[in-house]
Design a protein that fits this description.
two-stranded antiparallel sheet
Length: 247
C-alpha cells in the first residue's frame, strides 16, 4: 500500500482519493481532469512521474459529467498498484481528457524503470520486430529521446488483447484527427484520393460512372474491390466536409 505523509500525518492513497473525489460533481472540466490526473499519478507513483495536458490544450466550457468513464477509473485506482490497473486507469483518463477538451493531448512522464526495450516487449508478446514496428505505426506508445528502453510496460497488456487494440487505435485516431490542422487534413485526404486515381487511371466519377449514373445494374459487392469503392467515396465526402468548414 502506498502511504503519503501530509501535515505530519500518514494517510493511505485510498483515503486521499476518497477525500478528493467527494466534491467531484461540483468541479468544472479542468478540476475533474486535475483530480483524476493527480490521483492516478499518486496511486501509481512507481510507474509515472507526471501527467499533464499539452500546452495547446483547450478545455470544453460546458460541464461534461463523464460518469461512465470515471467509474472505470475509480475501479482501477481502488485496486492494487498493478500494471494492469494502471493501464486501465490511463486509457480511461485519456478518454475523459478527450471528452472534456476541444484540442490537445495528454502527456505521461514515466519512470525509467517502467520502460522496456523492443527486444523485451517482443519477447513478452512473442512477436517479430516488424510486428512491433507495425504496432507503433498503428498507435502503440513509444517514448522518444530516452534511449533503447522506450516502451511503457502496459503496451504488452494492450496489444496482446484484440479488444484493447481496437480501443487504443480508435482513441488515438480520434486525437489525431482532432488535433490535425484543416490544411494538413486536406493534404492527407487529397493524397489518398490521388493514390486511388493513380491506381485506377482516373477520377472516382470516371471509374465508377456507370454505377453513379445508374446505367449499370450492379451491386458494389459485385465489384472486384468493393472496399476501394466505399473508401474512395468516403474520402471524397470527408474532403467536401472539411472544405465546407472554410465556407
Amino acid at each position: 500500500m502506498v502511504v503519503l505523509e501530509t501535515n505530519g500525518a500518514k494517510h493511505s492513497v485510498g483515503v486521499i482519493i476518497a477525500d478528493m473525489l467527494k466534491n467531484y460533481e461540483d468541479l468544472d472540466n479542468v478540476g475533474k481532469f486535475s483530480v483524476y490526473a493527480y490521483t492516478i499519478q499518486t496511486k501509481f507513483t512507481r510507474y509515472v512521474i507526471g501527467i499533464s495536458p499539452s500546452e495547446d490544450t483547450v478545455f470544453v466550457e460546458e460541464n461534461v459529467e463523464g460518469k461512465e468513464i470515471t467509474e472505470q477509473i475509480n475501479i482501477a485506482i481502488s485496486g492494487d498498484e498493478t500494471v494492469k490497473n494502471f493501464a486501465i486507469a490511463k486509457y480511461y483518463l485519456e478518454k475523459l481528457f478527450f471528452e472534456i477538451t476541444e484540442k490537445g493531448r495528454l502527456l505521461f512522464y514515466y519512470r525509467s524503470s517502467y520502460l522496456v526495450s523492443s527486444s523485451d516487449i517482443r519477447s513478452e508478446m512473442k512477436v517479430s520486430r516488424a510486428t512491433i514496428m507495425r504496432f507503433v505505426e498503428n498507435g502503440m506508445e513509444k517514448v522518444e529521446g530516452v534511449g533503447h528502453k522506450c516502451y511503457p510496460k502496459h503496451n504488452a497488456l494492450y496489444w496482446k488483447d484484440g479488444v484493447w487494440v481496437l480501443r487504443i487505435q480508435a482513441l488515438q485516431e480520434k486525437f489525431k484527427l482532432r488535433n490535425q490542422s484543416e490544411v494538413d487534413l486536406v493534404t492527407e485526404i487529397e493524397g489518398q484520393i490521388k493514390e486511388y486515381e493513380k491506381q485506377y487511371g482516373g477520377s472516382f466519377e470516371k471509374v465508377f460512372a456507370d454505377i453513379i449514373n445508374g446505367e449499370q445494374e450492379q451491386n458494389i459487392y459485385d465489384l472486384e474491390e468493393p472496399d476501394d469503392y466505399k473508401d474512395w467515396r468516403d474520402l471524397l465526402k470527408d474532403l467536401e466536409k472539411v472544405r465546407g468548414k472554410d465556407c
